[in-house]
Structures are given as structure tokens and as C-alpha cells.
Amino acid sequence: MYSGTCSMQLKIMGDKLSKVSDFHGYAIPNQTLSETFSIDSLVVTLTRLNTLRVLSLVSLGIWGPLPGKIHRLSSLELLDMSSNFMFGSIPNEISRLIKLHTLTLDGKFFNESVPNWFNPMSNLTILSLKNNRLKGQFPSSITKITMLTDGKSFQFRISLLPKGVTTVLLSNNSFNGKIPEEFSKLNHLQHLDLSSNSLVGPPPSGLFSLPNISYLNLESNMLSGSLHNVIKCGENLGFVDISSNKFTGSLPSCLDTNSSNKRVVKFNGNCLIIGNEQQNPDSFCNEDNFKKKRSWSSTVWIVVGVIGLMVIFLVIVAFVRLVFRRRENRRETVTLQHTVPKVIQNSLPSGISSEVLANARIISEASKLGTQVVPSCRVFSIEELTEATNNFSGSFFLGEGSIGKLYKGMLENGSYIVIRSLSLFKKYSIRNLKVRLDLLSKLRHPHLVGFLGYCIDGESLEDSTSSRVFLVHEYISNGNFRAHLSECSPDRILKWPDRLAVLIGIAKAVHFLHTGVIPASSSNRLRTNNILLDEHCIAKLSDYGLSIITEDLEQIELADDVYDFGFILLEALVGPIVTGKGEAFLLNEMNSFGSQDGRQRIVDPVVLTTCSQESLSIVISITNKCISIEPKNRPSFEDVLWNLQYAAQVQATSDSEQKSEGAS
User: Membrane-spanning regions, if any (predicted)?
Assistant: First the structure.
């Protein structure tokens, strides 16, 4: 790292190349950074270097979607994060880096379209997006750029380029159509590489005679026609490659290798009349022959299409007959589709089906979390649960949850579980209830208490209904968050950095519930006593998603979860609030947070002695926003999570500085 008085450079080169074919958005041992790595936290940390001008983080195993927060590095002139494991879309916010002249994001797994954000980037001269999975139309705003490097796997037409361009490198893409005539007007062009694309038709004759052209590579396209109209070549032209195309006729004199000129010319794999055994027969380049083949291919596809339509028609007829035959089941299914959220599957790499992608407006990268370590959901028998709880005896009773009674149990293999006995407000058919439970089982996240399975009371009876179900969750042994804030247990009370870690974990879980489910899972009963801590003090949210089972599907806004989380933040700041007095506390005491004396009086002494003032101020600010009376003024959970992560980073920096001062 180099730091000057007015500039700063950060360059790190690793050895974790991104050349793997089976990367699906999750951490890979010995390839990527660990599962606990957060690219969001990394970028937040980097944004504190507000004078950073050069950032190069190459082959480090960085993984995750590139956060839009990268735009906060407003002084950045060069950004190179190539050969890592980033995926998703390239954030539009990069366009705010108006000083950027070099952007290199090679060798990644970006799989969305190229964003149309080049207009504000008047200083951008080098763009390299090689070896990605980008798709869609190439944006017209790219014409503002004065130098382009090749970007593998693009699928778009070549756009017009500015007349001042000197180097155009667009090889190994999926460009199609003809080379625009405007290319022959780029009088400053010196180096043009359009090889390995799908370009067709004859190239503009003026390309060969541009006054400054020295390198011209058109190899491995489908360019055709005769080059007889190429009357002369530019004086500086030293290399020409037109091999592996469909050119016919003879070479122009200025490209004849037998002439006195010293330029290098490659032309194998065409149908040229030059007596070269490495040319193809005329039939290979015959356009009429290709038209016949295309015509035959079109006929075949028409026949296939007609047969396909007939098959679809027969399937529809069969489906309609089945619908009428099972009218009652149909009503039930339709009702369920309108009331129960569609849960995104996490077993697939992206976590999102093509149908969902086509219909959803926003899919957060939180929905791309992979399958967790928690065992898969299974069906328990009532005998198993009875044995695990000694017939649901009082000694195994844990208490009343937000919904249902909770029992601790032990399975035959010695593992502990928690069983929620849930009496439903109405009776469901077994089929209906199983669909709901299956949806609940799809909610998997490191900071959600694992759902292990269920048992439906009366399932053994045919065509029966049930008004009771047992939900089986993993057992979390270290108590709830509220207990770790109480002075009643001074040996267990959490310091400020530990409280921030808990809050960040739960914010990630709720963010997932808001973005990993369509429609979002709201009303998740956010309370400090519903946040459990395991033996490693990892926070996990319980009592989430129960509205799927209870049909408590009121139109509750996501902002209500934000409001509830605001009270969790508040308790993390001041300690447990007496039940029922939270509103009164807000009205009478919240304004006191604005003064130093007020903080000393209200904030938990443990927090005051273990926090930095900047970190504390960040959390107080986001707390005030979360508990705003107006829902529209409350932040999203993405904003909440970002602020908490920022507060944690500020706190970590402060703690590190204090240790350094103490050591000196």
C-alpha cells in the first residue's frame, strides 16, 4: 500500500484464481475466502479511505455481489478487482465514480446485462470485462469510452465509437451483424481486434486504408464476399489477419504476401483463389448453399413447432378435465396460492427460478444464500416426539412461546430439540397443511433457528383435517438476547461489540426474510426474547414465518418489522425495557439521546464503558429512524444492516487503536 499526502494506492495480488466451472455463489474451500467473509463489510471498510485513488484487489478469493457502496470511494481513478468470485450484476452506482479512468472486472461471474451507465464517466478510457457471463444488449452510452478491451461472453451488436478512439479490442465475444461503415472513418484508430465473433458480410474497404491503422484482426468470424474493392492499404498497416472467414476471389495486391511489402498477412481457412491448399472449397463459402440449409432448418423447426403446439393443446385439455374432476381440491389450491408466500428455493445456485425472476421486481442477493448446515426437514412421528419429551411431561416444558407451547426433547441419537405444540385457529386438510409446512422448511439462513421437521396430529387418517401440528426446531443452549442484557446475570452480560454482532446477525436474517421470499415474510415477531444465542454466541431468530402456518396473513408492511427491530436496538442500548412501557419510554426519553448528559443517564453503563462515541452515535441514529411513527420514514433492512456493519467497523477500529496506544 502506498500513501502520499494527496493520494493513496492499495494494491494486493493473491493466488486464488477464479478459474472454476462449478462456482454457484457460495464459498469454496481453498478457492474463496471463508463463509464468514462479507464483501459488504470489506467495501464499507475501504470507503473510510476517502483519498484512495488506486484500488487493485486481484485473485484474493473475494466472493459475493459487488456492493453499490463502492461509489463512496469518490476519488477512485483505477479499480481492478479481477480474478475473484463476484457474481450478480455490476452495480449502477459505479457510474458515480466520475474520476475513474480504468475499470477492470475480468474473470468473474457477473451474469446480468451490462448496465447503461457510461454517460457520466467521461474520463473512462479502459474498460475490461473479460471472461464473465454478461448478456443482453450493449448500452449505447459505451460510445463515450475512448478505449475498449475485450469482454468474453457478451451478446450484443457493435455500437458506434467516438472518432478519437485509438484502440478497440473486442475479441472473443458474441458480436453479430455487419461491421459498421463508420469504423472506416476512425482516422485515429491504430489497433482493431474483432476476432472470434459472429460478424457477417463484407468488411468496410476503408478499414484497410485508415491512415494510422497498424494492426487489424478479423479472424474467426463469418465475414464473406470479395476483397476486390480494397484498392490500397494504409502505410502503417503491419499486421492483417482475415483467416477462418468466408472470403472469396483473390487477395488485393496490398495484401499479397508475394509482393514487396513487409506486412504480415494471415488468410487461411477462406475460399480464396490463391492456389493454397489451406483454403476451403467454393461450396463452403457459397451464400446460396447456406440459405438452402437455413431454409431446410426453418422447415424442420416449423414442423417441430406445430407438433409442440399440438402436444401443448392435448396437455391443456387433459389439465382442464382434471381440474373439473377435482373441483374441491382446486378451490383449496387456489386459495393457498393467494394467501401463502412463494418461498425461494435455496437448493439451486442462484436460489431463484426463471419464473420468479421473470415476475419479481427486486430479488436481493440475500436470496442467493446456499443450503445451510442445518439438517434437512423431515416428518416426525407422534411416537418419536412423545418419547423425546417423556409424554410431554412438565419437566420438559420450556414455557409459552409467542405462539404455542414449547417443550425440550431428546432424540434417540442424543441430540436435543425444541418442539412447538401449535393449536391452529382453524382446521386444515392434511394436504393443505403439508404445503404450508414445506414452504416454512425452505426458510434457511445461518441466523435463523433451524426448522428440523414436523408432526401433524391425525395425519394417519385418510382425508382428515387437523387443528394441531408440532414443529421441531434445533435446540439453542445459551439463552436469549434479553437475558444477556440483564444485570441479573452480570457474568453473561454482553459488551457493546458483542451486542453489535448479535444485532448484525439478526438484521441479516430479517433482511433474508424480506428479500428471500415472494411476497416478503413480514410480521416475524421480533423481540429480544425471540433472539437465541448458541454456545458460540451466534445469534439466531426464532418464531419467524409462523404466519405461513397460522394463516395470520394480514397485510402487514415490512416497515412494521423495522419498527419492532427498533425496539431491539433500543434494548441493546439501554437494557431490557419493561413490557408494555416501550411507547411511554420513547415519548419521554428518546430526546435525551441527543445530549451527552442524556446518554450518560439512559444508556446501559456496560455499553458506555465498552463503546466508541462514533459507533454509539451511528446506532442511536438508526434506532431513531426505525421507531419513527410514520412507516414511510423508516429505513429498509438493507439500510439498517449497512449502518450496523459500519458501526461495528468503527468500533473495531477504535478498539484496535486503543490496544496500539496501550502497547506503546
Answer: 300-324
